[in-house]
Amino acid sequence: QEQLVESGGGLVQAGGSLRLSCAASGRTFSTDAMGWFRQAPGWEREFVATISWRGTTYYADSVKGRFIISRDNAKNTVYLQMNSLKPEDTAVYYCAASPEGGVPAGRSLYDYWGQGTQVTVSS
Who contacts 42 (Cβ-Cβ below 8 Å, separation ≥6)? Predict the structure, then answer.
């Protein structure tokens, strides 16, 4: 059974850092684009970052320059390094996999999703 499991969320002060991990199992996701999305209470789930199977990255403007997405295909794991965190980054963060080539940003292009991990940034 294909599964994505996020970890690394928590509570951090503004200006701090967190590193999220997403471990994939059930099949190899090495040829999928892997993305991170987030959802704050009362808001729709929004795109954060994505990385193609070749390693090309694409970021939402709101996190560009602060977040770094990476992947280790040998470990079937994708990471999101989050620096200079702001209170507005507070959300549940979801990992997702897409069979699309390139760097898809649309939520509908992803067909596997994790359960999410909470990130809370205090001011």
Answer: none
23, 39, 57, 79 from 71: Cα distances, Å: 10, 22, 10, 6
H or E segment at 118?
A: strand 117-122
What secondary structure letter does DSSP report for 66?
Answer: T
What average pLDDT does the segment 87-92 reach?
A: 98
Q: Is 6 exposed, middle or buried (0-12, 13-18, 19+ CB in 10 A)?
A: buried
pLDDT bracket for residue 18 (50, 70, 90): very high
**What b-and-e string marks burial along 20-39, b requiring 16 or more CB atoms within 10 Å of the CB?**
bbbebeeeebeebbbbbbbe
| pLDDT band, residue 42 (cuts 50/70/90) | very high
Instruction: Report d(CA 88, CA 55) in Å as an integer.
Output: 27
Residues in the chain, total: 123
Rounded to an integer, the average pLDDT of 19-28 is 91
The 10 Å Cβ neighbour count of residue 72 is: 11
